[in-house]
Amino acid sequence: MTTVEFHPLVLRPDDDDPDAVVVGRLSIGEFVELPAVYGDAITLMRQGLTVEAAEERIAADHQAEVDLAELVEALTDLGFVRAVDGDPLPDPAERAPRSHFARLSRRHVAWLFGFPAKLVWLAAVGAALVTLLLRPSLLPDYSDFFWSDYVGLTVLVNTVMMSMSISVHELMHLMAARSLGAPGRIGFGTRLHNLVVQTDVTGVWGVPRRARYRVYLAGLAWDAFLMATLVLLVAHAGLPGAAKAVLQALVVTVVMTIPFQLQVYMRTDLYFVLRELLRTRNLFDDGLAYARYLRAGFVAMVRRRPRTVPDPTTGLSRHERLATRIYSVLLVLGATVTLTAFALFGAPIVIVAFARAIEGVAEGLTGGSPLRALDSALLILIEGGIQALFVVTFVRTHPHWFRRRRTLRPE
């Protein structure tokens, strides 16, 4: 007789298939979809039944024979099993990264997503929209970004403000996940040529789809609330001119982040919303795999060789296969346009800005304006730091690109 002890697990009905369940362990971010009968078997074993007794109960209740020993082995590989016959097993949670703000519980943050908070959000956004309609001069303009004659100082302050706003944006994702009982981690990542701050909220797979939208949209909801609050302060708080200028610059920096979220081919917040709306499980990776399949087919056609790469979408459901194939085209086109625009505009702007900043520092050191030299040095420090952080993050998140390959040579 085999007894099985499980770690704390989430077990819920699947969002789309009534004959399936989702089983997962929040602490390691592992989730798997299983037939509902296996979910019943896990429940029975968690209640203390042995593997053999659970098999007999399943056979009696469902008129089906199941191999629970094989199921237990698979769940052990996933890190779901604590002990078998009282013998503890290695726990992958000991090596898993710890959740950030672990002491932040559901009761601390649930109020942020309750009905009163939603009313406050609607009131602020509505009042800001009315204010902008009545005073269109308050609409954000690119010139609002430059609130000082010193570009380096402007970039420094705006970067600090943007960093704080982005930090709260990501913290809202984490708090939304925590309000649903899911852990989260905040860190750096890359999207094509962009350095991004991202929140790992894999644990939200433990809650139904409708609840997951809260997590994905929490950051954008914060952005809208922040911009609305800033507009109202500038319009009605009677602030000094300098304070108004800085707040309007912050509005511009937040507005500049919104178009990025629309680039769903880079796994932005709205990508996850799109994935849920299309009822797909892994839209980006499946779309990327299909794009590689199309590339391999094109290369084979050019070389007049048979296609050897199988279609990775054949195992998907009909609607998921169609969504994945359309998304793969969007992914390729979007990435191509983005990288081309960066090569034609973004990279030259950065290079010229660095060159002019270096020139400004050199002039300051040879008798020119010391303020201009300091301003240029600030620009080099800020942009150089951002680019260096991008390189470090890219290398860390893409180790296989930089791993030295060994070549075996006959002796």
Automatic annotation (TrEMBL):
UniProt keyword annotations, A-Z: Membrane, Transmembrane, Transmembrane helix
Protein name (database record): Putative membrane protein YgcG
TM region positions: 109-130, 150-168, 215-239, 245-265, 326-357, 377-395
Keyword Transmembrane helix: yes
Organism domain of life: Bacteria
